[in-house]
Each structure stands twice: as C-alpha cells, then as structure tokens.
Design a protein that fits this description.
- The complex is a heterodimer.
- By secondary structure, chain A is mainly beta.
- Chain A is built from three helices and 14 strands.
- Chain A is elongated.
- The N and C termini of chain A lie far apart (67 Å).
- In chain A, 35% of the residues are buried.
- Chain B is an alpha+beta fold.
- In chain B, 16% of the residues lie in helices and 52% in strands.
- Chain B contains two helices and nine strands; from the N terminus they run H-E-E-E-E-H-E-E-E-E-E.
- Chain B has an eight-stranded antiparallel beta barrel.
- The longest helix of chain B is centred in the first third of the chain and has 18 residues.
- Classes of the chains: A mainly beta, B alpha+beta.
- Chains A and B meet through helix 1 and helix 2 of A and helix 1, strand 1, strand 2, strand 3 and strand 4 of B.
C-alpha cells in the first residue's frame, strides 16, 4: 500500500511539474496561430533600381525628392576630369498616395524634358494570411520634350513633343539579401528622329539587388531593347551601382553607358557602349519627406 | 486509498481555480521613446496590439509584441526601425516573461490600486536580459489595468545606433506599458 501511495505521489509531483512547465508559457494560451497579412517591404532601398522603376512603393503620405546626375564619359580623360566637368540632371518629386498608388513628376536637362508617371501595385508580395509570392506593378508614363522645334518653318504639333511608356514590373524579394525583377516595357514616341526608328519600341528590363550590409546594397539595372536599336549608334542600357543609406538620404552611385533619366531617354537613346568603355558616373540622391503625419 | 483520492481531488481543484485566475489582452499599448537629448525630432513608436497574459494566482506576467506593429510619426522611421535597428524579419517578436514579486499583497477580488514589483527576462533582438521595475496594478471590477515604465539599454540588446544619427537616436529606450486585461476563460 505504501508503495502505491509513494508511486501515486511521485506521479502527482510529476504531473504538477508538467502542469507548471506548461504554465510557464502563458502567451501560448492566447496565441491563435494566425499570422497577420503583411506586405513585404524594403525590396529595394529606393523606388528606382537605378534608372528603371522598382517594385518598391512609397509609403502613403510621403514625398521622395530626387536629384539625379549623369556625368560625362570617363574616357574623356583628365582635361574633362574624367567626365565630371559636365553633368546632366533630373529633378523629381514622387508621392505615395495610397499603399498601392504612387505618382511622380520630373524634369531633365536633356531635351528639357518633363516626365510624369502613375504606378499601381496590382498584386503585392506578402506573407501571413492570403500570402502572395511576388509583386506585380503597372506603370504608365509620359514625357514632354520642351525644346524649340527643330524646324519652325513647318507646321509643328504639340503632340510631336510627346512620348509614352507602359510597363509591367514583376519582382520578388527572395530574401533580405536578394531581390530580382523583370520589367517588360513599351515606349511609344509620337515623332521619331529618323525614319528608320520605330515609333513603338519593346524592351525587357532586368533589375536586382544584393544587400551586403544594413546600409549598403549592390544593384544592377539592364534593359534589352528588342527592336529600337540603331546599329553602332544606340545600345542596351546597363547600369551597375551601390545604394548607400545614410539615415535621411539614400545615395545611388553607379556606372552606366546611359545618360538618360526617363524611360524614353534610356531605352531609346543610350549612345554609350560597354565594349568601347563609353561609361559615365552618375548618382541618384533621394530624400524622403513626410507630408501627411501618421496618426498615432 | 481515500487519501490518494483526496490528494487527487485537491489537485484537480487547484488546477480548475488556476484556470479562472488568468487575465489577458491583445490590444495592450506599449510605446517607446529613444529620443536622444537635444534631438530635433522625437524618436518614438507605439504598438497598440501588444499581447499580455497574467496569472493572478502565481503572479506570472508575460508580454509579447510584434515589432512590425510599431507605428511612427514618419514612415521612414518605421522603415529604419524595422530594417536597421531591431531587424524585424529576423527577430519578429519581443517577449517579456516575469513575476510579480509582491503578488500576495495584491487582492484581485477587491477594487483598488497596488504597486506591483515585477522582475523577469526581456528577450529582444535575439538577446535576453533581466529587467525589474515597479508598476501600477489597478483592479477594477473584473478588469485589471496595468501600467509600468522602464529603461532598456539598446547596447544590451545589440541594437546598434550609428554615430551619424547619435544626435537623434539615444542610447536608451524608455518603455511605457499600458494594458487593460480581461479575464481569460480557458
């Protein structure tokens, strides 16, 4: 009998011990195991990979003030300070309207061109409930050349100044380190410079990022032009660079064969060749402003 | 044999009473302030969906916050908080597991305000450190209102503040807890 009691007591002690052990995690009692739906953010440090749009969206109520510079060719040598004597620039303002809608305007030195776009996130890469594996964004843009007409003696139309582009961006942040995206693009130019230039140019963009540290990432941005290249005159734009985040600013420093800073310019009119080392230094400087305060 | 049954009965009884002594919330408010002295802007965030569970019988009290649930005045702060400081993808949760040391001095069946001495372990950014603080516990009907304030040294949790922003982001974070708990019927 004593043995049985002793055994029972031992059993009870073990039981109470396990009960205690279970109680250690009170939080598990209210954990319903559901993971909240969460959009994957920070696929890129910036809304542009380098030249092209990225799958990243601005937060609603924020404005991204962007200053872009593209310098002259390195192979101009020391008398032009390896191209740094000349700079072409674009000033841009981009706005986050809702979490899936972003608009932007800019003006470039080259051709005194004004550009604007709307970008909409149709599908967003997300985790948790109703997760989705990639982001699909749509971009529609317009460029307006504001140079005086080349031949003022003929009848010139305002529509001749315009070009349009449409783009689909499909991208995925594979990990905190790696993000890749593809962007099929069509550029329609109302008035092309030469009769051999097509009005509709089809291109496919390949962009990506490898994040090296919390504040430093390696990026590349390439567009393959299917039908718009003129032999020995225009080339596919390839830019490689680094994104540096300093806290308030993001610096995108890069080397590229392109000087264009909007879709029409860098897809249609990249005149440098990587083979001939017609390369130039450029940077994008991004400064974020909160326009609408977030309610706390 | 009777004795054994008695012990078993008592055991069952304590288990069942224990189950009714628990309180919880999933909408607790926890905010932090890591503003450096003389900083031109406030570095603070609020999480309004913190989980807190406590057992008035044992005095055990536990908190859990999802780091991505902190809201900030500026979107960029939120991005930097998640990406650069607490690394929310790697360490999504911050958990505190502790005990009310003077639990016997609190009468949970009578309305009133008590000082609760709490000590326990805070796990944040993959690092666990001991924390002890004094909070206020108010019994109001079937609800418990708890509030507390303590300081976490960021370096203890390997949260690195670069020199570049040291004039804005401080070395410590003041953490404020404000939760209203309801009985947990489980």
């Amino acid at each position: 009998m004593k043995k049985t009691i002793a055994f029972c007591l031992l059993f009870l002690t073990i039981l109470s011990q396990t009960l205690k052990a279970q109680e250690k995690d009170l939080l598990a009692l209210v954990d319903d195991g559901k993971k909240p739906h969460e959009i994957v953010k920070n696929s890129f440090k910036s809304i542009r990979v380098i030249n092209g749009h990225s799958i990243e969206f601005l937060a609603p109520g924020t404005m991204d003030f962007r200053i872009l510079h593209r310098f002259g060719l390195f192979n101009q040598g020391p008398s032009n300070f390896w191209g740094l004597d000349q700079a072409s620039m674009r000033l841009g303002f981009d706005f986050g309207i809702t979490k899936n809608l972003q608009i932007g305007v800019g003006r470039s030195t080259f051709q005194k061109e004004i550009d604007g776009y709307i970008k909409y996130g149709l599908l967003r890469q997300s985790t948790g409930e109703q997760s989705f594996p990639f982001t699909l964004a749509l971009v529609g843009g317009i460029t307006i050349n504001t140079l005086p007409f080349a031949n003022p003696t003929i009848n010139n139309y305002f529509s001749s100044r315009l070009a349009f582009y449409g783009q689909t961006i499909i991208g995925r942040k594979f990990s905190d380190v790696l993000t890749l995206q593809l962007s099929p693009t069509i550029v329609h130019t109302n008035l092309v410079p030469l009769a051999i230039n097509p009005n509709d140019v089809y291109a496919l963009g390949f962009g990506g990022r490898i994040k090296m540290t919390k504040r430093l990432a390696f990026t590349w941005d390439y567009f393959y032009n299917f039908n718009g290249l003129t032999k020995d005159l225009t080339y596919n734009p390839l830019s490689v660079g680094v994104d540096i985040e300093t806290g308030g600013h993001v610096f995108q420093l890069h080397v590229s064969n392109s000087a264009g800073m909007n879709e029409r310019a860098f897809i249609n009119e990249t005149t440098g060749s990587w083979q001939r080392v017609d390369l130039r230094f450029g940077f994008n400087l991004s400064r974020m402003f909160q326009i609408k305060k977030v309610k706390k | 044999m009777k004795k054994i049954l008695l012990i078993f009965g008592v055991c069952c009884l304590t288990v069942s009473t224990k189950a009714q002594s628990k309180y919880f919330t999933k909408t607790g408010k926890i905010n932090f302030d890591a503003t450096a002295p003389k900083s031109p802007e406030n570095i603070d965030g609020t999480n309004k969906n913190s989980t807190c569970v406590m057992d008035s019988k044992t005095g055990e009290i536990q908190f859990m916050v999802l780091m991505k649930g902190f809201e900030f005045e500026r979107a960029l702060m939120m991005e930097h908080f998640n990406e650069n400081y607490v690394e929310s993808n790697k360490f999504p949760k911050t958990v505190f597991k502790g005990l009310i040391d003077n639990n016997t001095a609190i009468n949970y069946s009578k309305d009133g305000s008590y000082t609760a001495k709490v000590s326990g372990k805070l796990t944040m950014h993959g690092e666990t450190k001991d924390i002890s603080t004094e909070g206020k516990l108010t019994v109001k009907g079937s609800k418990l209102i708890i509030s507390a304030e303590f300081v976490a040294i960021l370096a203890d949790y390997k949260i690195i503040v670069p020199q570049l922003v040291a004039d804005k982001v401080g070395k410590n974070a003041k953490i404020f807890v404000d939760c209203t708990l309801e009985p947990l019927n489980k």
